[in-house]
Amino acid sequence: MRVAVVGATGMVGNVMLEVLRERNFPVTELIPVASEKSVGKMIAFGSLEFPVVDLKTAVSMKPDVAIFSAGGETSLEWAPQFAEVGTTVIDNSSAWRMHPDKKLIIPEINGDLLTVADKIIANPNCSTIQLLMALAPLHKAYKIKRVIVSTYQSITGTGVKAVQQLENERNGVEGEMAYAYPIDKNCIPHCDSFMDNGYTKEEMKLTNETKKILDPAINVTATAVRVPVVGGHSEAVNVEFENDFDLADVRKLLHNTSGITLKDDPTTNNYPMPRFAESKDDVFVGRIRRDESQANTLNMWVVADNLRKGAATNAIQIAELLIQKGILTV
Prior knowledge:
This protein is an alpha/beta fold and 330 residues long. The chain is 32% helix and 23% strand. The chain folds into 2 domains: 2-124 and 311-324, Rossmann fold; 127-306, Dihydrodipicolinate Reductase, domain 2 (2-Layer Sandwich), CATH 3.30.360.
C-alpha cells in the first residue's frame, strides 16, 4: 500500500509516522509530503528511507491513501486533487469536518458509516475525540441531554513553536512567542481565534462536532484553556442525562469500552493525568461522581494524548478500518 503523509515533517506528522510503524500498517511505499523547503530531505521509516516530495508530485504518484496534517487551507486545495486520482484522503484539519457531504469519523463510534464512496474523510478535533470516546457508551445507555466541558489543553496542540516558547521561558531565554502571553506558570483561556458569539473556534468545534458525530439533540457548552503541559489534553466534563444512572454501571460501561482505560480510585489517588497519558493511545477516564446539585447528572475527568488518539492514531485507525471493510485493498 502506498501511503502519503502530508505534513510529514511537522509535530503531528512525526507522530503519524511513529503510529504507522507501531501498528504495523501495511506500508509498501511511504510518500512523505512537506513544504518546498523540506523537499529532498530523507525520512526514515523502518529500515528504509524515503525522500520528501511536494504536493504536486505526491498527487502524480497516486497513493492509495493520503493522511493530511498540514492545515485547513492546504487540505481544501489539495484533498480534492488527491481524491480525483483515486486516493482516499483522511484529513486532520478542520477543513472538511462540518461539510455536509463528508463523514466525521471516530472508528469506535461511527466507523460503520464509511463506504467506498468516501474519498475525503474528516478526522475530528483532538478535544472532541477524547470527549466523545467517554460520552458515546453513556449516551447509548442513558441518553445525554447536555454537556458542560472545560478543557485544559496541552501546548503540543499549538505545535512546535509553542513547545519552544515554553522551553525558552523555563530556561530564561528570549524567543519567538506562539501565544500573546507567557504560557509557563500561566493558563490562557484562548484556544484558536475568537468568534462573534464570544466563543473560540475550539469551543465551537466541541459543540458542533459532538452534534454531528453523536447526536444533534445534545446541547454542548465549552470553555477551552491552554495550560503549560506537554503530555496531553484534560477535560472536566459535566453530563446531564434524560435517565438516571448507577455509578457502578457507569464505571462498568466505561471499563468495557474499547479504547478507554478507567482510572477511578480516589482511595489510592488513582486518576487520569496527562503525564501518564503521553505516548499512549487510550482515553483515560476517572473522578467519576454524581453531580449532587442536579438530578441525572454526572461529573468525570477525561485525559488523552492529543497527538495520538486526538490526531494521528485516530486517523490511522480510520485507514485500518477501511482495510477491514475492503474499501482499501492491501
